[in-house]
Each structure stands twice: as C-alpha cells, then as structure tokens.
Amino acid sequence: MQNSVTLIAKNFSIIRWLALQNNLVNWYWQVDVNSDEFILNLSNDIQFPTLFSRQQLLTTSQKHIPFTTEDAVVYSRFRELLALTKLNPQAQFSIAVNATAVHNYLGAYATKSWLFETIGNPGFYFESGDIVETESKSIGYYLVIDTDELTSTIMLLSEQQQIDTNRVFNQGQVIRVHNDRLEKKSNIESLAL
Questions:
Q1: Which one of 39, 100, 133, 156 is at 20 to 30 Å from 66 when CA atoms are compared?
Q2: pLDDT tens sequence across 78-115
Q3: What whole-number distance in Å separates Cα of residue 76 and Cα of residue 81?
Q4: What does the CA dihedral 121, 126, 129, 131 come to, rounded to 10 degrees?
Q5: Cβ neighbours of 153 (radius 10 Å)
C-alpha cells in the first residue's frame, strides 16, 4: 500500500510540474490558414508543422488549441521512450509531437492490414508506446500510438519501409492494422532505424 501511495504522489508531482511547464512555455496547436497544416506553436517565432492537415482532425472549431497537461504527459512519455532508440534528437522530437497529435486530435484511421504479412498472434494485445515490427517487401519498425484488442494505430520509426514495388512509407507514416501483423520488439536500443 505504501508503494502505491508513493507512486501516486510521484505521478501527481510530475503532472503538476508538467502543467507548470506548460503554462510557462505557452505552446499551442493551430491550423495554418494558408496551408491547412496542423501546427504546434512553440513560441511567437517558432512553429512546428505536423504531418497532418485540417481534414484529419477531430475538431477544427478553435483557432488556438492549448497544449494541455494531457498533451505534455503523452509527449513526454513518447519522447522518453524514443530517447532509448538510435533515432537522433530531431527525429525523436518530430515523432513525439506527431504521435501526440495522432493520439489526442486525429480521427480514426481505416484498417489496412493487407499491406503487411501476418507475423504475430491475433490475440496479442499491445500497449501505447510499444515498438513493433511489420513485414512487407521490407521490415519496418513502428511506434504503437493507440490500440485495442484487435487493431493498433502505429507510426513508422524507420526512415523508410518498402511496402511493395510501387509504394514506400516514410518516417512518420501513420496506419492502422490488425494486431496479428505486428510483433513486439523488446531490444529497442539496438534496432537499426
């Protein structure tokens, strides 16, 4: 019981610290009126365009969407996990921001499992933050963003993955597939991304 209370208090302290940091940095999301890109504003003169557009968002009614405490928790969790990989810091930041956008603001993706070979157990359940492998014409490593008992929304961590002779996915590509197309990787620090 003591450990549970300590863990809850520690998590509350982290969330409170993230909320304080969020208020100090004043990050916010917006849709660029010229390009329709979903952008994270880091300061008055620094904007980070995500890989997504207005049409992919669940809602576009607000001009500015605050970077919430929930955003900060999700971003920090993905960023800490990605720090264990061989990705450079710029790729870690980009993937963590884009994964946060997918997790909290994007609509559902259609399942496209036929693009990948069956390599896993259909009953295996993944967790958000898992690193998984897929197989098609080449192997790709993905970050699990959202998941349920049958499917997972994943984002490509590998620089590229050859899907077939005519199609290549680039780093940051998001897709939803059945869980039997995924295999969890535990040795993430040694993966060649």
A1: 156
A2: 999 999 999 999 999 999 999 999 999 998 888 999 99
A3: 8
A4: 0
A5: 23
